[in-house]
Design goal:
Elements (H helix, E strand, L loop, with lengths): L3 E7 L2 H5 L2 H20 L6 E6 L14 H10 L8 E4 L2 H4 L4 H13 L3 E4 L4 E3 L6 H37 L11 E4 L2 E4 L2 H13 L4 H10 L11 H8 L7 E10 L4 E10 L7 H12 L20 E3 L6 E6 L2 E6 H4 L9 E2 H9 L7 H6 L7 H28 L6 H24 L20 H14 E8 L3 E8 L4 E9 L5 E10 L2 E8 L2 E9 L2 E7 L4 H10 L17 E4 L1
Length: 578
């Protein structure tokens, strides 16, 4: 008995939702039942279905498609000789170039499998004379119809593209959830405010997971669907947010049956974010950069990746015990030779933020929509690269301590990152502004670790201004050495009382017009001030301090001086202050 395989195919969504599949199935079953006694068909037939598969593009012959799997079984010898493949018409089997269609028929013939065209009542096999001739004619007609249809569709899309670009007319109605078609044009609907909020939150430093949680808690949904991290990242990568539509064009050469795929981008949608903002988001997504960590809806630090140990240069990281947050050197924590002490974090944060310079606090806390400048992006990228290189350096050193050699890939990636860092610093030097750095003030609410949005935005601004903060704790005080990007404000040195969060002393190094000024104050009273321009310098000092104490302050304020620079004080040249 002959095993029968009934093949059903539709190529479009309209046909899938219509009665195309059911109609074909009924027709093939009736043919099977009518011919079973005469053709000696096995009563146990098998149904093969392809939904939304184009025979013109040979999608139904892919390995994942029904007919593709059938041919694989044929080639593997799993289909018995004498079997029958039944189709409604030959154009369900193939609409490709007739030479290809004949090749497929030949594969079946070599496996001794018959092909039945129900519509034409045609059995295609070498047992039936002229069947291949009729099959070739049917294949030629199907192929020509598909070619003409393809040309008409392409011309239609070309016309739509032209009107969309030149006249602003909508191109497709299947547009993003934040865009509607009104009077033949694309317009933003209310959902676009939520899309903008997602970008603002991410640019402020909040992770995709936390953004999803916050939106779900506030009931800010689109089509009543809950957010998750994957959906947030998918939205952040969607080029339609910046107004772009990606059009994939397929050019077919019907003579040699080759296909050329091209992609074109059209700016036809109203944009929600700028090119610069979108580019910055993609850079962060690619580098897994979330500015700072947010865990359990808490933002524990605003100095992520900025804090370094003054003794060994290792990163300072946070940890929590009994509701309190502490920071400690990684080398000290892992017992790698550093003797830096653990210290409470929040007093340190409060002390540093009182004197951090270069932040427009109104912009940080209130203005979410300001676009990101090239300088902001470059500075943020420099911090990330330095952290990336430091991670590689620590890993390489660890391997060497274990007597193992780092891999070539590890060394190569570190080298590439160092080269990119140098290039980025050069770009920043070309673009960097010369605006003076000024003090800022803000409310105590910024120190609430549950205040995620404001703290994340503040951290983002800090990273634009501060290169690093070298921290040296002792029993009662913390010495914070703050280095800035702004060349006119080189560094601050803060002596912070660990328990009171107060600044006991402030040191500053500034440079302007070739003059470098060193100053140190205690309780807002100037202790000493040195102004230097090469060999020319002046020194002012408080009468409350002796020469030895002033000498200690000067050494503490060292920065960017020649190696052979000597901190020697001649009392005769001191201008003593009351």
């Amino acid at each position: 008995m002959k095993k029968c395989y009934l093949y059903i195919r539709v190529s479009s969504e309209q046909q899938i939702s219509g009665d195309g599949l059911n109609r074909q199935e009924s027709l093939l079953i009736k043919y099977f039942e009518d011919n079973a006694p005469v053709q000696d068909f096995d009563p146990d037939y098998e149904l093969i279905i392809d939904e939304g598969r184009s025979a013109f593009k040979a999608e139904h012959l892919h390995e994942s498609a029904g007919l593709g799997r059938f041919f694989k079984r044929v080639n593997d010898g799993d289909i018995a000789k004498g079997s029958v493949l039944i189709v409604e018409s030959l154009d369900r089997f193939s609409r490709e170039n007739p030479f290809k269609c004949v090749d497929y028929i030949s594969q079946l013939d070599r496996a001794q499998i018959e092909l039945h065209d129900v519509e034409k009542r045609l059995i295609i096999s070498r047992k039936h004379s002229n069947s291949l001739t009729f099959a070739t004619m049917i294949a030629e007609r199907s192929y020509e119809e598909s070619c003409l249809k393809s040309i008409r569709i392409r011309k239609g899309w070309d016309k739509r593209r032209k009107k969309a670009i030149e006249e602003g007319q909508y191109m497709i109605k299947n547009c993003p959830k934040w865009i509607d078609v009104v009077d033949g044009r694309y317009v933003l609907n209310e959902n676009h405010r939520l899309v903008r909020e997602v970008f603002d939150l991410y640019l402020s430093g909040i992770r995709s997971y936390t953004i999803a949680q916050q939106l779900n808690a506030a009931g800010k949904l689109i089509d009543h669907k809950k957010w998750d991290s994957t959906k947030i990242c998918h939205l952040l990568r969607n080029k339609r947010c910046k107004g772009e539509y990606t059009s994939n064009r397929t050019e077919r050469n019907f003579d040699d049956d080759t296909v050329v795929l091209t992609t074109e981008i059209y700016k036809i949608y109203p944009k929600i974010v700028s090119e610069e903002e979108f580019a910055e988001v993609q850079r962060r997504l690619a580098n897994h950069n979330y500015i700072g960590r947010v865990r359990n809806d808490l933002k524990k630090t605003v100095f992520n990746s900025l804090l370094k140990c003054s003794l060994c240069g290792s990163a300072l990281t946070t940890s929590s015990t009994n509701g309190y947050t502490y920071i400690k050197c990684d080398n000290s924590r892992n017992k790698k030779g550093c003797e830096a002490l653990m210290m409470p974090y929040m007093p340190f944060e409060k002390g540093v933020l009182k004197y951090v310079k270069g932040i427009d606090i109104e912009k940080v806390l209130n203005n979410l929509s300001d676009s990101i400048s090239d300088i902001d992006i470059l500075r943020s990228e420099i911090v990330e690269l330095e952290t990336y290189i430091e991670t590689f350096s620590l890993g390489i050193e660890k391997l060497r301590q274990q007597g193992r050699m780092p891999s070539f890939d590890m060394l190569d990636q570190k080298s590439q990152a160092e080269e990119k860092l140098q290039n980025t610093k050069e770009k920043l030097a070309d673009k960097k502004d010369t605006a003076n750095v000024t003090n800022i003030d803000f409310s105590e609410d910024i120190h609430e670790i549950s205040n995620i949005i404001e703290r994340s935005k503040l951290e983002l601004e800090l990273r634009k201004v501060i290169k690093r903060i070298d921290v040296l704790p002792n029993k009662n005080y913390v010495l914070a050495d703050i280095n800035y990007y702004n060349d006119e404000c080189i560094k601050h040195v803060l002596l912070i009382n660990k328990k009171k969060s107060t600044i006991e002393a402030i040191g500053e190094i500034e440079q302007q017009d070739g003059w470098r000024t060193y100053s140190f104050s205690e309780n807002e009273k100037l202790v000493f001030q040195v102004q230097s321009k090469g060999d020319v310098w002046t020194l002012k000092a408080s009468k409350d301090k002796n020469v030895e104490e002033i000498q200690k302050y000067m050494i503490m304020m060292a920065g960017r001086e020649p190696i052979d620079f000597e901190y020697y004080i001649n009392e005769e040249y001191i201008e003593w202050l009351e």
